[in-house]
Structures are given as structure tokens and as C-alpha cells.
Design a protein that fits this description.
heterodimer, A: 357 residues, alpha/beta, Rossmann fold, 2 domains, six-stranded parallel beta sheet, six-stranded mixed beta sheet, globular, B: 310 residues, mainly alpha, ABC transporter involved in vitamin B12 uptake, BtuC, membrane (chain B), transmembrane helix (chain B), transmembrane transporter activity (chain B)
Amino acid sequence: MNLTKLLAGTALALGLATAAAAQDKTKVGFIFVGPVGDGGWTYEHNEGRLAVEEHFGDKVETVYQESVPEGADAERAMTQMALGGADLIFTTSFGYMDPTINVAAKFPDVKFEHATGFKRADNVSTYSARFYEGRAVQGHIAGKMTKTNKIGYIGSFPIPEVIRGINSAYIHAKKVNPDVEFSIVWAYTWFDPAKEADAAKALIEQGADVILQHTDSTAPQAAAQEAGNVITFGQASDMAEYAPMPRVSSIIDNWAPYYIDRVQAVMDGTWESTDTWDGIGPGMVEIGEITDAVPAELKAEAEALRDSIGAGEYHPFTGPINKQDGTAWLAEGEVADDGTLAGMNFYVEGLTGDIPQ
Amino acid sequence: MDLSSINWILLLASLMVAATPILLAGVGELVTERAGVLNLGVEGMMITGAICGFAIGVETNSAILGFVAAALAGAALSMLFGLLTQYLLSNQVATGLALTLFGLGLSALIGQGYIGIKGLEVAKIHIPLLSDIPVLGPILFRHDAMVYVSIFIVAGVWATLRYTRAGLILRAVGENHDAAHALGYKVVRIRLMAIAFGGACAGLGGAYLSLVRVPQWTEGMTAGAGWIALALVVFASWKPWRILIGAYLFGGLTVLQLNLQAAGMKVPVEYLAMSPYLVTILVLVIMSSGRGRAHLNAPAELGRSFHASS
């Protein structure tokens, strides 16, 4: 009897002690859609996580789970993380939107941050980067560089984020090259190197000499390299190992400053639900070095475009722009509002094919 | 739709490349299962083969050594499974699943230093004379050696199982291990050899991904190919040539649907994306149901442990 009491008492004391110790440290969780070594999207989120550790040192503890499927299993992973004492959880893929909202409702004291979504709650913030600003620069380079006038685009899922990128790239390629055509292939995956490589090969075999990708692995870069005269752009990460050819530039997501900011807010108790959508200006989207495979003149043009977007002088979606069916969307000089952009589900005029619904 | 923009010859040629990883893994698993062992660790052995093949291939600058290393690595990992299930009599399903998880983690660990490194060029073999035949030449006779090796393995497995004493013994062990034991065959030893063969083939399949098809190392790059190979074995009702048909059908439709998308085909993309899975299952099920005895093809002792005392 005595022994039981003693043991129970000790256990209680230990429990309190660990709880107290845990309170000193802010625990930050990350849910990743791919492996941290994908060289693209998840890799950059993990870099952000490492930056948080570096910045706060002992005051923070980070945990992460990689390759979490989008869907029911994501709820399990988040619940586990919340039960494990996480104070702040970043869920870093569009498909985690509903699971994040569901789990957040069960853990009102835990803060959630969902990347690229649009559903918020008192303890759920959303954040995203204006990748389409980078896509505008890519489209400009792609339109000038293509010789076959055929540009291949590997899409992941038909969601607003991806469609925005396609539209932005197309508008700016068309602007400098009226004959340009886009072939769009939907891979229905964020990460499957073999399938991404096959998609790139299919596009190249059909005459595309520029490959844009909105999937996470570097496989399309390898396929383009094998084919020879094809250029690509790094997606989400610099993918500099494929420079100077085929990778001539890239869009880099830099999440570190945002993550550090938000962790600080949790520590200070000032965290509240917000909607952040930053682009080239604040540095959340960076344009990777444009290599010498691009003529110097074109490089200067692209950099000027980047700088004018960054300075807020130019918006990639500036009218006149019509929708695919020919109806007017933006009048001359009119700029797209964030609401329409966030839910974009239509192609602009000139693109062929239908968006899978 | 502009079907003329599809280069059908190149498409049929890339079909064989797309199908080879699952073909190799599938035929290896077939041998394992015919010996009565269900190894669900194909995915884990494939990805381990992928990184070991890539690492050794890059370090030695030799694709052949890469493939040999991949086969050895796959076989070594499968021996872990063999030890646990054949000597320690652990549950095969659970052990196989654990092997997949272990392989994914192990490969990520080994692969730390190989992310973003360029792969090597694997030479394509132009078979003299045959490769000059119009149409058929580029489709069939201008591939890298592994494509032909995979077909030889399928043919070899078929001939061995059907015509040789060794094949008969292997099947006997899979159909009734007690009877095979009573006849004096070393059930555990034979099963271990079958498991090792399955592991080596899965390793080769993985290395084909990282050395030829993609070609680079990325964590988790098999992305479910091992599970497709496992399903293929069942739908092919444990017959080697049907695995070949199934794998080529699956690989072909995967490549075809991407080409149709790129050509702007007016069919909803969702249907195109699911077609490889649907058509492969349908065709193999119809083939297997013909004589109404498909269930007889499953090895009777599949997934059951053997111990000489029982």
C-alpha cells in the first residue's frame, strides 16, 4: 500500500516536473507533405524550421513529421503532435486545410498555421507566398528563350495556387512572344520523381523546349538535362545543382523570417489569427540567380521585372486581361484583387484545355 | 486534340522504360510468394536498392557495379526479413510492413550525401541489325541493358518454375511445406533463397529508377511502386508472363495518359490519371477468371510460418 502511494506520488511529482520543464520551451511542430530531402518545397520548409532552431536555441524545441498524406491521416499526425505538447503547429500543404481546421477545433489552446489555404479560425492562421510574382519573371524568360514556341507545364493539383502560377507565367510569356503555346500536364501528385520525369519526357517528346514545374522534386530537371536543349526553372528551392543548364533560374521560398516571427509571437503571447500573403518585396519569394545560359540583355529585363514587382510598381495581373472564354476580367490598368486571386479557378484567354474540376 | 503531336514510336519505347521497375520487383515477389512467403517489404527493398545502386554507381562511375550493389543490398535487407520470419517465426505481414518502413528510413539516412548529385549516363545498347528495322527497331531494340535483363529474368523464372526440378521443389514448398519437409527438403533454406531472390530483384527495380528512369536520388523516390508490384503479383495470379503483360500495360498507360494530356485530349484528366490502375486490374482479372480456377493459383501456404516440429 505504502509502496503504491509512494510510486504514485513520485510519478505525480515527475509529471509536474516535466510539465514545468516543458513550459520553459516553446514546442513547434511541422507537418510536411514530402520528405525533407525532396530538394524542393518541403526542403525549404525544413530550412525554415532549422532557422527557428538556430534563432531561438534552447528556448525552442521543434518536431516534424514528413511524408504525411493529405487527408484523414494528416488529422492523426496533427492530433498526435498537439497531444505531444506542441504550442504551435505549421501544416505546410494545401491539402491539410480541412484537417487543420478540424484538429484546431479540438485543441483551442494550440496555435495552428496553415500554408497556402484560405480557411481560418481563432487559433488558425494562414500564410502563403505570392509565387505568381516569380512565375511572371519565369514566363518572361521562357517566352523569350523558347525556339519551338512550345512550353510544357507540369501541374500538381488543379488548385488556385497552381492555376495562378500557370496564368501568370502564360500572360508574361505571351507578352514577349505572341506565338507561344502552353501544354499543361496534371501529375496529380506533389511528389513522385518517376512520374514527374515521365511527364517532363512526354512534354519534351512533343516539342516543348521549356519545362515549368509545380511539383516538388528535381526529377524534371534531370529529364531536361538528359534531353539536352531544354531549359527549366527551380521550383520552391534553388535547385542550383542543375545550373547553368537546364536550370536557368528559380523561385525560392524563404519561410525562415515568417517562422521566426510567428514563434516569437507565441512566446510573447501576442499571437493572433492572421492572413499573410507576401511576395518578392518582403523577401518571402526570391528569384534564384539567372545563369549565363540566358542572354545578358534578357537577364537584365528579367531582373528589372523582378525589381518592379518587388517595389510594388507593377502587378503581374494588370488589365486588360480576359478569361479563357473571352469574357472580360480586368479592364485596362485594373489590378486583380486578392480575393479573386486566392480562389482563382479559371484560365486566362489564350490557354487551351480545361481545368479539371 | 492533336494526336499527331504525339510521337507514337517514342511513346512505345518509353513504355518499356516506365514498366521495368515494377516488372523486376513483381517477378522477384512472385518467386518469394510461390515459395509460400508473403513479403510486404518490396517498397522498402526497392528504395534501399535505389540508393545503394545510385551511391555505388556514382562513386565507381559504373552502372553495372551500381546494379550489382543494388541487388546485394536488396537481398541483404530481405535476409533480415528472412531471419525474423523463418527462424524467429514472426508474423510475415507485420514484418513485411516493418521492412518497408525500415527501408524508407535507412535509404533516407544513406542518401543524405547524395541529394542533388547528378546520375550517370547509362549507355543504350543498339542491337546490330535489329535496331535498324523501321518502327520496331526504335521501340524494341534500342534500350539500356536492364530492360533486356528484366525480360530474361521473367523468362528464366517461367522456365525454372515450369520445367526444372528446382522449380518443382520451390512450388512444393509453397503448396505444402509439411509434405516437402517429409520428403526431406530443407523448407527454411529454400524459402530463404526465394526471399533473397525477391529482395535482389526489388533492389534492381529500385536501382533502375535511380540510375536510368529518373535518374537521380531523391528521398522516397519509389513513391508506391513497390505496392503496385505487390498488387501486380496477385492480379497476374502468380504467373510470370502475366506480370510482364501487367507491368507493360501499367507502364504504357501511365506514359500514354501523360502524352494525351500534353496533346490536349478532351477527356477529363481524372479519368486519364486513374486509367493505368483501372485497366491493368480489369485486364488481369478477366485473364485470370477465364477458367474459373484463379483461386487455385495462390500458393496454398502463402504467408504461413513453418517449423519442423509442427
